[in-house]
Structures are given as C-alpha cells and as structure tokens.
Design brief:
This protein is an alpha+beta fold. Helices cover 37% and strands 20% of the residues. The chain has 4 helices and 4 strands. A 4-stranded antiparallel beta sheet has the order 1-2-3-4. The model has no long low-confidence stretch (mean pLDDT 77).
Amino acid sequence: MSDEEDDANQEDMAADWAAAMSEQEDIDSVLAEQGADAGGSDASPAQFDELTAPPHVAAEGAPDLDVILDIPVNISMEVGNTEISIRNLLQLNQGSVIELDRLAGEPLDVLVNGTLIAHGEVVVVNEKFGIRMTDVISPSERIKKLR
C-alpha cells in the first residue's frame, strides 16, 4: 500500500470521526434544550457553550488514539476449520485425525477478537512458535468488516 493511500485512509477515518463527534454535539445540544424546557436542569445554556472538546478528541477534531492503545485484545491464529457432527466429535480419541478445509502450506489466518486482520506463516523463534505476517489487511478494509 502506498503512502498516498495511507494518507487518504487516515483522512477518511478522521472525517468519519469528525462527523461522529459533530452528531454527538448535536444530540447533546438537543438533550440540553429538552432538559432546560422541562425545568429538569439547573445548568444554564451559557455553561454548555463554555464546554471544551472531550479529552479523547484532538484539537483538530480527529480522535486521539492514545486513549485506546493500551486496551488488551485477543489475537489467535487459525490453521483451518471444519464442521463435524456431535456423534463424530464424541468418537474422537488420541490419535484421531480431523481433516481441515485448508491445504498444507496455505497461510494461516490471524484474527484479533475474531476479526481477520492478516495472513501469515508459522516460524520458530527461540524454540517457540511464532507467525510471520505475509499479508496484512488494510485498516480501511478492517473497519469495513466491523460494520
């Protein structure tokens, strides 16, 4: 992926976040007006005008991603899968072989919280298994899959 495409994707994401924040501000103002009309709010409208952007939004209106960078996620690698009946599942024992839907040598799927983010191959690092990413899905494609 070129730097121009990355810049365009970043700009698209920033525009999406700005639109979402604008919608939230509209909702907040409507709720504030309803609260003032109903007499349920002690705050004057001037106080709402003085509010600043939430701390997770940068000055330009783009989201501050530092807020989410320390959130843990589950990452897993999928060799393949198959569907079997409960009868066959109960008959499995040591030495049983389950045929998967992948060919030998095909790349593994790398999943984060169940969402495909990349393909990779198994490697050994310091006598432990690892995975080398061979094809990483672009951030914009990942976001489309979440919707």
